[in-house]
Amino acid sequence: MVNRVRYEDLFCDELVLTIEQLKQLTGRPRESILRDLKGVGYYSSYNEKGKFYTLADTPEFDANGLWKYKDAYFSVNRTLLDTAEHLVNVSNAGFMHSELRQLLGIGIQNSLYQLFVSDRLARLQINGQYVYFGKESIDSQLEKRNILSTGSAPCTDDENLAIRGHPEIDFVLIIDILIAVLRGNKTESAVYNNLCRAGSPVTEQQVMTVFLHYNIGKKNTIIQK
Q: What b/e sequence results for 83-111 when a residue is b if at least 16 CB atoms lie within 10 Å of its CB, and e otherwise?
């Protein structure tokens, strides 16, 4: 049986320890320490390849489910992949890599790409920046991100969402078209047919205009699996 008190004592003076430190303190091998920690409950850091460990009741997670102690970063969702996916899913307007990097304190470009290619997140490239969206919350997230101008600031005025010179294409229709693209409709005809089947009043010309405005279909603009 694991001596919980023993491990609480070990973590008393220093809330976060590495396996190497624990090996020195306990005289036990890595496998035994990990088995012990599993028995008492623990978190490993999402940075530094999980190098840092703390007891499960130690972190004081913030509203984003994150806790940072010195050089160690922890998440209530534990792994970096699960943490990034959760933050994107619950966000108001999706996330760019730069925004998540600032929030998490580390670069996660590779992790976001893994989440995208494994179909756990959707992404759209706007003005040279990839924006990641939750698979189940694309609609609301797109509406709250000003993807029709700079691609970075939240929308506040519907009149600013029109494509200049095309007042007949309102922001709701634009959002519908972009959502159709994010859901895997790669061509103008696929988007048009999909929206028509859903009862949308969209025209082929309107779909073509949105594709041209966002350079959809050009290399590296919309990336699908």
A: bbbbbbbebebbbbbebbeebbeeebeeb
